[in-house]
Each structure stands twice: as structure tokens, then as C-alpha cells.
Write a structure and sequence with these properties.
Elements lengths: L18 H12 L4 E5 L5 H11 L5 E7 L6 H15 L4 H10 L3 E4 L6 E4 L5 H16 L4 E7 L12 H11 L4 E7 H9 L11 E4 L5 H14 L6 H10 L4 H14 L6 H25 L2 H13 L8 H6 L5 H13 L3 E3 L5 E3 L2 H9 L4
Parallel strand pairs: 1-6, 1-7, 2-5, 5-6
Antiparallel strand pairs: 3-4, 8-9
Bound molecules: adenosine-5'-triphosphate (ATP) and magnesium ion.
Magnesium ion binds next to helix 2.
């Protein structure tokens, strides 16, 4: 078994750090505070929510995890919620089936996964929309405290209905006994939903940003896991992986996972070079493609940032002259476009860097004119 999980939550034994963040989430839950969790992609929001849920006393709390990925409207939203509810069996089946029936919804099962699929009749849109508060009403009557996490919540900002955010916000206000956790990517959640004074969710929840796990803590926990699995390792290799991936959890775990599965004996530098080379080779075409997808200045800026690692002042003369870039106004547009496309991320004081560390390392190896 590989202790470095890359997709599903497998329990606290494989979950690295996030102690203070878990505490903050549990504290919010216990004190009925709604909370918004945001970060750059692949830093560990989803895993942190699963971890927190796993620590809550099952006799006192009911937790619902609703992944809104790829939902495009409130009907999809109701559908996702109903599927999760159906599977969780927390509602009295007959009551719940009655609601679904009255909406003309039918339940079927995915032939491959066996997961329930609830199909709403989209032409009954208005009654489907009315069902959402009805479902929450039923849920709020439950004896146990209910915690609902909406993951990929930024999807709501693109819903077809203009009033989608307002309706969800109203539900949140109508059911103060339910704790709502919203989670999503920093870029869209922050700009579009929670920090705009004209939007319904403005200042309505406690905000929590997830950052990289601290390198010393990360390193020590990896050592402990490897020791537990009686795996020999060179500590300098682990340090190198953390440096090369900037402790960006999704990327770090992927390298660790490959290192673990491909190591016959010790985790050492020759193995690291092999694994690292393979991963970079797999990302090479993705890095090359950017040249054709991006306008010239964006491509040059992206490559220049990759070469620097972190860039604090992309408009500065020092940077633009070193890489033969453009005047501040064009630079500012190029940087904004790269941020919008998610190709670079803003790491605060450290500056900007290329989001995908494997693409970054490839870009760095390409010739620069
Ligand atoms: N604390 C942790 N310990 C071990 N592995 C982790 C931890 N946090 C995240 N991971 C791993 O890192 C990867 C990314 O985590 P996760 O999917 O939770 O990130 P995310 O922020 O939800 O990403 P996205 O924004 O793309 O939804 C996953 O493979 C996950 O298993
Ligand atoms: Mg996620």
C-alpha cells in the first residue's frame, strides 16, 4: 500500500499536518459559524474538509459533502444535493421519495458505479427550485447537528440563473441551525462571490485561506510515515522534493507517491532523478503547447517567470530588461491574463510563480531568446 494518497481521503494516518486549519474548522462547526475555505488549486481544500468531517462525533453531527463540480444551474444543484442525501440515508426514505416524486424526479442507478442518480424533469424548473428550501427544511428537523460542505462552490458564480447566489444565501439565513462550509478556488471565489460588496455573500462567512504546509513540518511528517512503513530514505531527497514542488501539496504528494511506488530499495537520488525525469517528460507537451495557445508577450512572460521561480515585480525594469519584455502597461495586462488563465499564481510576499510546478520546470529548460 502507498501511504502517499493522491485521490481519496484514507484517514488521519495518511493526512499530513493541517492541525491549526482543522482546529479552525472544528471551532467554526461547534460555534455555528459558516465558513469559506479558499486557496490556489491542489493545495488540499477537499482533503481538509474530509479530514475535518472524519473527526466529528458521528452521534452528534451529520455531515454532507456536496461537490458542485460541473454544475451549471440550480437544477443541477438540487440534483447533486438530492443524490448525496439519497445515498447518505439521513432522511426518512419515504418522506424524501415523496418530495422527489412530487417533483417528477426519478431515481436510477449508475450501471457501472451503482451510485444513485436522480433525474429531475428540467421543464419543471420552478418546482425544482422550490424543492431546495423544502429539502433544507426537512434536514433542519433532524436531531443531529447538520454540517453541509459545498465544494467547488465557485461554480455557482457561473450559474444560468442570475439569482442563484441570492437563493443559496437566503437558505443559509433561513436555517441558522445548519452550518455551511463553502470551498473553492481562490481566484474565482474571492473575486466573484465573497469580496464584492454588491454580491449576496459579501462578508457573510468567516474566511479562511489555505497556504502551503510549512516545509519543516511537512518534512518531519514524511520521515515519520516512511519510518512507519520501514522504508529507507535519504532525508536530502525528501528536502529536494519539497523544494522543487514548493510544498504545493498536490504536486508534492504526486512525486512522493511515485517515489514510493517505484522504489525497490532505498529512496535515494538516482531514483529521484529517474522519477522526476519521467514526470517532467509527461508534462513536456503541455508546456510546449502554451507557446501556441498564448499571445507572444504572455508566453515570454510565462517563461521568464518560470526561469526566475518567484517574481515580485514583473513590471520592474530589472525584470523586463533581463528578459526583453515590454512596457509596464503591456506587462500588467499580460500578467493579469496569465493569472486569469490560472497559469501563474500570486503567492503574496514571495511574488508570482507558475502554478504547475512540472510545467514550470519544463519551461525553464526551454531555450529563451
Ligand atoms: N494534508 C494532506 N496530506 C496528504 N495529502 C494531501 C493533503 N492535502 C492534500 N493532499 C493531496 O493533495 C492533492 C490535492 O488535494 P485536494 O484535492 O484536497 O486539493 P484542492 O485544494 O481541493 O484542489 P482543487 O482546487 O483542484 O479542488 C490530493 O491528491 C490529495 O490527496
Ligand atoms: Mg478540491
Amino acid at each position: 500500500m502507498n501511504p502517499f494518497v493522491t485521490n481519496t481521503y484514507r484517514g488521519p494516518a495518511y493526512f499530513i499536518d493541517r492541525k491549526s486549519e482543522t482546529e479552525i474548522l472544528i471551532d467554526a462547526v461547534k460555534n455555528d459559524r459558516n465558513l469559506t475555505l479558499f486557496s490556489h488549486r491542489r493545495l488540499g481544500k477537499t482533503m481538509l474538509l474530509h479530514h475535518t468531517f472524519s473527526l466529528l462525533d458521528q452521534n452528534r453531527y451529520t455531515t454532507l459533502f456536496i461537490d458542485l463540480f460541473a454544475t451549471r444551474n440550480l437544477v443541477h444543484f438540487a440534483q447533486k444535493m438530492s443524490e448525496v442525501l439519497f445515498e447518505s440515508k439521513i432522511l426518512h426514505q419515504s418522506k424524501f421519495s415523496k418530495i422527489l416524486g412530487s417533483l417528477g424526479a426519478s431515481v436510477s442507478f449508475d450501471p457501472i458505479t451503482g451510485n444513485p442518480q436522480i433525474n429531475f424533469n428540467i421543464t419543471e424548473r420552478s418546482s425544482v427550485l422550490k424543492s431546495i428550501p423544502q429539502i433544507f427544511k426537512l434536514l433542519s428537523e433532524s436531531k443531529k447537528k447538520l454540517i453541509v460542505a459545498f465544494d467547488e462552490f465557485q461554480e455557482v458564480s457561473h450559474y444560468e440563473e442570475d439569482f442563484a447566489e441570492a437563493s443559496i444565501r437566503t437558505i443559509m439565513q433561513e436555517f441558522p441551525e445548519i452550518v455551511f462550509l463553502f470551498s473553492g478556488s481562490k481566484k474565482s471565489m474571492m473575486r466573484e462571490i465573497f469580496t464584492d460588496a454588491n454580491r449576496p455573500f459579501f462578508q457573510s462567512t468567516q474566511m479562511m485561506e489555505l497556504h502551503e504546509i510549512e516545509q519543516d513540518i511537512y518534512e518531519n511528517e514524511i520521515f515519520l510515515i516512511l519510518a512507519r512503513f520501514q522504508k529507507k530514505y535519504d532525508p536530502l531527497v525528501i528536502r529536494q522534493i519539497l523544494n522543487d514542488t514548493y510544498c504545493h501539496t498536490g504536486f508534492t504528494q504526486m512525486v512522493l507517491s511515485r517515489m514510493f511506488s517505484e522504489s525497490e530499495g532505498e529512496i535515494d537520488f538516482p531514483l529521484y532523478e529517474q522519477v522526476w525525469y519521467d514526470i517532467l517528460a509527461n508534462h513536456k507537451s503541455m508546456a510546449r503547447e502554451q507557446e501556441f495557445l498564448l499571445p507572444g508577450l504572455q508566453w515570454k512572460t510565462l517563461t521568464a517567470i518560470a526561469r526566475e521561480g518567484y517574481v515580485r515585480a514583473p513590471q520592474s525594469r530589472a525584470f523586463t530588461e533581463k528578459y526583453h519584455l515590454s512596457a509596464p502597461s503591456s506587462m500588467s495586462r499580460a500578467v493579469k491574463a496569465l493569472l486569469d488563465k490560472g497559469l501563474i499564481i500570486d503567492c503574496g510576499e514571495k511574488g508570482l510563480r507558475v502554478y504547475n510546478v512540472f510545467i514550470e520546470k519544463n519551461l525553464k529548460s526551454f531555450p529563451y531568446d
